[in-house]
Amino acid sequence: MTTDTTPATPKGASASGGRAGHAERRTRETSVAVSLVVDGSGSVSVDTGLPFFDHMLAQLGKHGGFDLEVRASGDLEVDAHHTVEDVGIVLGQAFAAALGDKAGIRRFASVALPLDEALVEVALDCSGRPFLSYDIPFGPEALPLGSPPFDPQLAEEFWRAFATSGGLTLHLLRRSGKNTHHVLEASFKAVARALADAVRREGTGVPSTKGTL
Prior knowledge:
This protein is α+β, with helices and mostly antiparallel strands. It has a single domain (3-198), classed as Imidazole glycerol phosphate dehydratase, domain 1 (Ribosomal Protein S5, domain 2), CATH 3.30.230. Helix content is 31%, strand content 32%. The protein has helices at residues 51-64, 81-99, 154-166, 180-198, and strands at 3-13, 19-27, 30-37, 44-47, 67-74, 108-115, 118-125, 131-135, 169-176. A 5-stranded mixed beta sheet has the order 1-2-3-5-4, covered by helices on one side. A 4-stranded mixed beta sheet has the order 6-7-9-8, covered by helices on one side. Helix 1 runs parallel beside helix 4 (180-198) and helix 2 packs parallel to helix 3 (154-166). The longest helix has 19 residues, at 81-99. It is globular and about 50 Å long. The protein starts with a strand and ends in a 15-residue tail after the last helix.
């Protein structure tokens, strides 16, 4: 398979003056474009062809306070995997581009977020060292959500792709929860809140003894 990836490039200041990034990726399986303003207002426009996945990405933008635009088309007649994973890759690239050298950010954040019976913990580090620890199991009784269907197992592939291309150390842990929708939504909201906290500026220098992240 050939891959044509447009490198993520900073868009500079957005119209609102916030940190912004844009990235695109085109393959024989998918076409994805993402624009992200980190210092946004939670304005979201998403179309991936997977309504449930769109709903989850909307949580990420809204609760992170990001302005997020995602346009994706893929071979959904085969499977949703390619689309979900590639959106994660491109979103991570846009996120990294928006942060630039990460000067002044808090860097670390964690949150425990409830949604009815579900409770998900997230901890992350904008470290530049990609790593995902994902402990949100779903049993064989967990049915796909939406139409076309979104397999709950695909959430892990999305977060792995996002953490890898975004340069994040990311941990997700389900403390409780039975409803598949609630657990997934709690995880997206929790990552959103942790990201919003981690990227807040609280200084001027790069938060690392190495001088770079």
